Automatic annotation (TrEMBL):
It is an enzyme of class 2 (transferase). It catalyses: alpha-D-glucose 1-phosphate + UTP + H(+) = UDP-alpha-D-glucose + diphosphate. GO terms for molecular function: UTP:glucose-1-phosphate uridylyltransferase activity. One of its GO terms (biological process) is UDP-alpha-D-glucose metabolic process. This is UTP--glucose-1-phosphate uridylyltransferase. Its EC number is 2.7.7.9. Residues 10-269 form the Nucleotidyl transferase domain. Keywords: Nucleotidyltransferase, Transferase. PANTHER family: UTP--GLUCOSE-1-PHOSPHATE URIDYLYLTRANSFERASE. May play a role in stationary phase survival.
């Protein structure tokens, strides 16, 4: 089954400069919780307890976040504020966190390949923490929905959503045969196409379940669009030789890698989760 989740978090987060000069974008808080913690919680809900992070220079705050802070715990002991650490303490106590570094930013595909030693030889999940995915109230999270599908189909699965035509250039875009409502077998994939070159308006978002043969494919994948090793190129090879599914998930996604999406997520979480608590 899917027991491990990889977080590629080596990117520079240039859209958030100067905020991300000394702080990883994955640590930016949506209300009172860092983006990356939402991702880890989503994976835990999907039954995953082993986490691997592909980090880079300037990302140590992520390691610190998933480690005990004795001094802080000591300071707030008996002050009534202990519950503010409860969610992160719970994650630290019940999961394992491993880290490796991507020392050159050669793209998402290269970052995933860098995580190979953390993942081993089984199917695994990938979360891009800057896509914040929230389920409909009372419904399972996106990764849990995908894990349920994996149990049935046993092949790589990417999460997709419909995007406006003028936004296809920001995503990998798929073409596929409909298997059932919201589920496609991928036949083609184009990385960041102009609207006229896009094979559909179905864009890949930051949730993947990958079978481990992806690593050998990535190892021989040449740099593609923007000179980066693209996960979409490797997935297309997998799709042509076997099967890759695209799943139109249920829930909401916020592009927290962009300022607009981040503000939208903050307002949504404040109104619907934080105040409702
Ligand atoms: P992005 O291109 O959206 O992230 O990469 P970025 O580079 O951090 O942000 P901007 O565009 O400069 O603002 C998508 C995801 O892939 C990871 C990033 O950390 C992000 O989660 N990534 C990308 C890597 O880990 N390594 C890479 O070489 C490239």
């Amino acid at each position: 089954m899917i027991t491990k989740c990889l977080f590629p978090v080596a990117g520079y987060g240039t859209r958030f400069l100067p905020a991300t000069k000394a702080m990883p974008k994955e640590i930016l808080p949506v209300v009172n919780k860092p983006l990356v913690q939402y991702g880890v919680e989503e994976a835990v809900e999907a039954g995953i307890h082993q986490f691997g992070f592909v980090t880079g220079r300037g990302k140590r705050a992520i390691e610190d976040h998933f480690d005990i802070s004795y001094e802080l715990e000591h300071q707030i002991q008996g002050t009534g504020k202990e519950d503010r650490l409860a969610s992160i303490s719970d994650l630290i106590n019940n999961n394992t966190f491993a880290f490796t570094r991507q020392n050159q930013m050669k793209g998402l595909g290269h970052a995933i390949l860098t995580g190979r030693n953390l993942v081993g030889d089984s199917a695994f999940a990938v979360i891009l923490a800057d896509d914040l995915c929230l389920p409909e109230p009372g419904e399972p999270g996106v990764l849990a929905q995908m894990v349920a599908l994996y149990k049935q189909f046993r092949c790589s699965i990417v999460a997709i959503e419909e995007v406006p035509a003028d936004e296809t250039h920001k995503y990998g875009v798929i073409a596929g045969e409909t298997m059932k409502d919201g589920l496609y077998r991928i036949t083609d994939m184009v990385e960041k196409p102009a609207p006229e070159d896009a094979p559909s308006n179905l864009a890949i978002i930051g949730r993947y379940l990958l079978t481990p043969d992806i690593f050998d494919i990535l190892a021989r994948t040449e740099p593609g669009k923007n000179g980066e090793v693209q996960i979409t190129d490797a997935l297309l090879e997998q799709a042509k030789n076997g099967c890759v599914l695209a799943y139109q998930f249920k829930g909401r996604r916020f592009d927290c890698g962009s300022i607009d999406g981040f503000v939208e997520a903050t307002n949504y979480v404040y109104e619907n989760i934080y105040k409702a608590d």
